[in-house]
Design brief:
nine-stranded mixed beta sheet; 4Fe-4S; heme; chaperone; alpha/beta; three-stranded antiparallel beta sheet; about 400 residues
Length: about 400
């Protein structure tokens, strides 16, 4: 969740949505994202809306405290129930992210999930995920989460090499994420993900291969691998600007991606989104697929984004301001936008093209269709899905996904 918020029109004090957003809602999946904005330390590459204890001291008093955060977030879940009215949908996915959600007691995460269950109900096969820092959990913590209804967990591994972790300002030690996978399995988690980052300054091809091998050796059924993006305003960007560490170029990113594809495929993982691989369809992250397919989700927490029926809104960023709004009985929404049909068409192309199944060709205008035919002849799109009416990326197309998207959206 990037720290910068867009502009938009004001959100009503009661958070009410236009009737058009709720029309036909019963036919659309519904998910919840719960943002926990706290971190023990700030990673040098991170541009997310997160806060350390030092950063919060004196800026929100008790309202910004993580001690009562679970109850504050529960207030927004209750607000969501009022806004969505008599919506009969059960919640299909819940994803707790951050920040470091596992800085909160496990019982607090379970309370937050229970609020959704009480207000909306959970589908019988609901996917319930939390992100976790490897150093902030132990077997007892994981057991409490599993008993409380969580069935998927995502550990931030990033790298198996200490010098790479040091550049990223990650605090865990090599080997700990792999141990966490075993502990999660022992606690009964059905699905376990490891997050990796490639392209860190100073990382070699061998370092990246070692990280992939270590991740696979741990036995997850899902791996996410992201190219490092150096965001302006971060500590890492300042270090690169001062010449303390080198910038990784796009060719290196492409090489690392090919290494990931080769290694993960050989281990029985299939890509289903450009940066995500799973051992089976059951292992895919259903919550992220809600985003990629433009379904409905409510994002609760400071800076969290939501989307329901073509209306997108975002909350105030600071935990103190967020808690104060809810305590006063107001929506914490900072702004919103009503997406036009054209907005939604473009977003579908942007997001669905990244999926293995691709984007329907019916979304493309004539210039986009012409671009798709060129992409097909250039080996960027797969012939068989194209004949069936979908623009689906080849491996080479995945390396150039951003450029392909730009051409297809006219």
């Amino acid at each position: 969740m990037p720290s910068a918020l867009p502009d938009g029109e004001p959100v009503p004090a009661d958070g009410a949505l236009p009737a058009s957003a709720l029309a036909g809602a019963v036919s659309r999946p519904l998910g919840f994202y719960l943002h926990v904005p706290y971190c023990a330390t700030r990673c040098g590459y991170c541009d997310f809306n997160t806060y350390t204890a030092t950063e919060l001291r004196g800026t929100g008093g008790v309202l910004a405290s993580r001690d009562n955060y679970a109850e504050t977030l529960t207030d927004e879940v209750r607000l969501a129930r009022k806004v969505l009215g008599d919506d009969p949908r059960e919640v299909r996915t819940v994803f707790v992210g951050g920040g470091t959600p596992t800085l909160l007691p496990a019982a607090d995460l379970v309370r937050m999930l229970a609020a959704i269950r009480d207000e909306f109900g959970l589908a019988a096969d609901a996917e319930v995920t939390t992100e976790a820092n490897p150093e902030s959990v132990d077997p007892a913590y994981l057991a409490t989460l599993r008993e409380g209804g969580f069935n998927r967990i995502s550990f931030g591994m990033q790298s198996a090499r200490q010098h790479v972790l040091r550049v990223l300002d990650r605090t865990h030690t090599p080997g700990r994420p792999e141990a966490c996978v075993a502990e999660a399995r022992a606690a009964g988690f059905d699905h376990v993900n490891l997050d990796l980052i490639y392209g860190t300054p100073g990382e070699s091809d061998d370092d990246w291969r070692a990280s992939l091998d270590a991740a696979l050796g741990a036995g997850p059924d899902h791996v996410s691998a992201y190219a490092l993006i150096v965001e302006e305003g971060t500590q890492l960007a300042r270090r690169i600007r001062r010449g303390e560490v080198p910038m990784t170029d796009d060719d290196v990113h492409a090489d690392r991606y090919l290494i990931a594809e080769e290694t993960l495929s050989a281990a029985g993982f299939d890509w289903y989104e450009v940066s995500n691989w799973a051992t089976s369809d059951a292992g895919r992250c259903l919550h992220n697929e809600l985003y990629w397919r433009g379904a409905d989700w409510w994002g609760a927490g400071p800076g969290a984004h939501s989307h329901v029926g073509g209306v997108r809104w975002w909350n105030v960023k600071h935990p103190g301001a967020y808690a104060a709004a809810l305590a006063a009985g107001r929506s914490p929404g900072a702004g919103r936008e009503l997406l036009t049909d054209e907005d939604r068409r473009v977003e579908r192309i942007l997001l669905e093209l990244r999926l293995r199944e691709g984007a329907p060709l019916t979304l493309l205008h004539e210039t986009g269709l012409a671009a798709s035919r060129r992409a097909l002849s250039d080996g960027l799109l797969q012939p068989a899905p194209y004949e069936a009416g979908h623009a689906a990326l080849t491996l080479r197309g995945r390396l150039l996904a951003d450029a392909v998207v730009r051409d297809l959206v006219d």
